[in-house]
C-alpha cells in the first residue's frame, strides 16, 4: 500500500499487449529531498512496491534502487521504467552505466548479466506446471520458467522473491529475464505473472537488452 509522498510517480513496467498488468514501480524524482539511505529504505518499505527508485540526478540519470528491505546495485524493471519516465539515453547505477532507448511502444535497457542480483532459474516441463506452482517457502529467489514455444522463443515464467517483505510473487522481473536470456543465449518473449510481457535479447559486447511497455499507473 502507498502513502502520499510528494514527487512520487507510480508506473507499471512490462505491461501486456492490452496495456494491463506490469509490475508497479515507485519513482521519487527529487531524490535530494531524501538524502539518507536509512530514510530511503524506510520509505521503500512503507510504499511496499517490489522496487522504489530515488533519482539523484535526472539529467545524468543517476538513480538509487530499493526493495522494501534492501538496496540493489541494479534491477531490471526499475531501470526500464525510470529510463522511460526521464527519457534519458543512459542510467547510472552502482553496478554500472545502463544504456537506454525507446523504440515505439517498447522501452529498452542494455546491461550485463553479472550486474543482476542472484536468481535461481528453475526450468519446468510445461507452462501448466509453472501455473500450478504454489509460492515456495522463504529462502532463495526462484524464477520458474517453461517453454511455451521453444522455436519461437516464447516462455512462461513466474518469480518468487523468497523474502519476508510482503512481496510473495513478483509480477514482472527484468533482472531474471536478463539472466535467463544470458543462460539460453537467444531472444526471448516472456509472459510472467498475470499477463506481463518482457522481451530480452543478446546484444553486442556481452550486453543483454531487456524491454517492455511502461504506463503511468492510473489509480
The major pleated sheet works out as: 14 strands, mixed
**What is the strand content?**
35-45%
State the separation between the terminal residues, measured CA to CA.
Answer: 12 Å
Written as H for each helix and E for each strand, in order along the chain, the element string is EEHEEEHEEEEHEEHEEE
Structural class: alpha+beta
Helix content: 10-25%
Uncertain runs are none
Oligomeric state as shown: single chain
Query: Given the structure, what is the number of helices?
Result: 4
Number of domains: 2
- Stated plainly, the CATH topology of the largest domain is called Diaminopimelate Epimerase, Chain A, domain 1
Return Rg in Å.
16 Å
Beta strand count: 14
- Which architecture of the largest domain does the CATH hierarchy give at level 2? Roll
CATH domain class of the largest domain: Alpha Beta
What spatial form do the alpha-carbon principal axes imply?
A: globular
Which superfamily, in CATH terms, is the homologous superfamily of the largest domain? Diaminopimelate Epimerase, Chain A, domain 1
Mean pLDDT: 94
Keywords:
Diaminopimelate Epimerase, Chain A, domain 1; 219 residues; 14-stranded mixed sheet; 38% strand; 4 helices; alpha+beta; 2 domains
Amino acid at each position: 500500500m502507498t502513502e502520499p509522498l510528494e514527487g512520487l510517480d507510480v508506473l507499471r513496467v512490462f505491461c501486456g499487449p492490452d496495456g494491463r498488468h506490469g509490475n508497479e514501480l515507485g519513482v521519487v524524482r527529487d531524490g535530494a529531498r531524501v538524502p539518507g539511505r536509512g530514510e530511503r529504505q524506510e520509505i521503500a518499505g512503507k510504499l511496499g512496491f517490489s522496487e522504489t527508485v530515488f533519482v539523484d540526478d535526472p539529467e545524468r540519470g543517476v538513480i538509487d534502487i530499493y526493495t522494501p528491505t534492501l538496496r540493489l546495485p541494479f534491477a531490471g524493471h526499475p531501470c526500464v521504467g525510470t529510463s522511460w519516465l526521464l527519457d534519458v539515453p543512459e542510467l547510472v547505477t552502482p553496478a554500472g552505466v545502463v544504456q537506454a532507448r525507446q523504440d515505439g511502444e517498447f522501452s529498452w535497457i542494455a546491461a550485463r548479466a553479472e550486474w543482476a542480483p542472484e536468481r535461481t532459474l528453475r526450468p519446468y516441463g510445461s507452462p501448466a506446471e509453472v501455473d500450478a506452482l504454489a509460492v515456495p517457502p522463504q529462502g532463495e529467489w526462484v524464477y520458474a520458467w517453461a517453454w511455451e514455444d521453444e522455436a519461437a522463443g516464447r516462455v512462461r515464467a513466474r518469480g518468487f522473491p523468497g523474502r519476508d517483505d510482503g512481496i510473495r510473487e513478483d509480477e514482472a522481473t527484468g533482472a531474471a529475464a536478463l539472466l535467463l536470456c544470458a543462460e539460453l543465449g537467444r531472444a526471448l518473449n516472456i509472459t510472467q505473472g498475470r499477463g506481463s510481457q518482457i522481451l530480452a535479447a543478446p546484444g553486442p559486447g556481452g550486453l543483454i537488452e531487456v524491454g517492455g511497455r511502461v504506463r503511468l499507473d492510473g489509480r
